[in-house]
Amino acid sequence: MVRAIKGTLVECDPSIKSIIINIDSKDNEYIIEDLDETHLVVKDNMVAKLKVELDMRLRENVPEVEGDSDSDQDVK
């Protein structure tokens, strides 16, 4: 009998995809199919959990910028 798994198409840049694959490599609980350089199919019920994991990884690896950022100032 054929078994179907509901999935969500995720489009991201290759560096983010690499992090998602790394997260999934531990237990294989997120990715259904690796389609190409920028697309993955992720289990629909695991998308929220994957977002949390990805956010944690990005916070660990990407330093927050502080100081005189033009994007934080109001344009007059």
Strand arrangement in the largest pleated sheet: 1-3-2
CATH architecture: 2-Layer Sandwich
* Main beta sheet: 3 strands, antiparallel
| Domain count | 1
Overall 3D geometry?
elongated
In terms of structural class, how would the helical and strand content be classed? Answer: alpha+beta
Q: Taking all residues together, what is the mean pLDDT?
A: 87
The helix tally amounts to 2
Could you please describe the fold and organization of this structure?
The chain has 76 residues and is α+β, with helices and mostly antiparallel strands. It has one domain (7-60): TFB5-like (Alpha-Beta Plaits, 2-Layer Sandwich), CATH 3.30.70. Helix content is 36%, strand content 18%. The protein has helices at 14-25, 47-61, and strands at residues 7-11, 31-34, 39-43. It has a three-stranded antiparallel sheet with strand order 1-3-2, covered by helices on one side. The model has no long low-confidence stretch (mean pLDDT 87).
Chart the SSEs and their pairings.
Layout: E1 7-11, H1 14-25, E2 31-34, E3 39-43, H2 47-61
Antiparallel strand pairs: 1-3, 2-3
Quickly describe the structure:
This protein is α+β, with helices and mostly antiparallel strands and 76 residues long. Helices cover 36% and strands 18% of the residues. It contains 2 helices and 3 strands; from the N terminus they run E-H-E-E-H.
List keywords for this structure.
76 residues, Alpha-Beta Plaits, 3-stranded antiparallel sheet, alpha+beta
